[in-house]
Amino acid sequence: MNRRTKQIFDKLFEDYSILSCVKDEIQTAYEILRGCYADKKKTLICGNGGSASDSEHIVGEFMKGFMLKRPVEGGRLQGALRSISLVSQTSLITAVANDIGADYIFAQQVYGYMDAGDVLIVLSTSGNAENVVKAALTAKELNGKVIAVTGENGGKFKDICECVIKLPAAETYKIQEYTLPLYHALCAMTESEFFDI
Fold first, then answer.
1. Are the CB atoms for 150 and 157 separated by under 8 Å?
2. CATH number of the domain residue 159 falls in
């Protein structure tokens, strides 16, 4: 970690000491993301309900300046960490749900988008949402890596993902409350690695 990245990491636990129980897992998630982007790969992100909103939010932080400016020479564009939200493709999602089955709305996209070395970030407060679990299994078959963010039980994720961040809560709303500072820290840390010049 560079100096700024370490400051962001440490500040997360100063502000949210309850997350100290998953400190190692958060560091592992950061290392997976750093490796992904160092190898010029991309992230795919999915979840349902509130986790779908978080998926969109994470993509926004990766794809343009978040905490840092990411100037591109000669214009107003900004440097991007390539990321795709799998919850945004309305026509595709409804076609898959109708023609194949709702449990495959994310797996079909993973199958189409994922290259070996890409990272899938899955968000599910229970860790058992079938459409998200099937996406994780598909990513593994395609030699992708999977980071899971879930509640304290871990659900099915604990048996299939490289990194499972089991947030210390059982209630859906509390898991969601801890999810926001977690991914803000991960996005800021990753950004710092590539754009802190």
1. yes
2. 3.40.50.10490
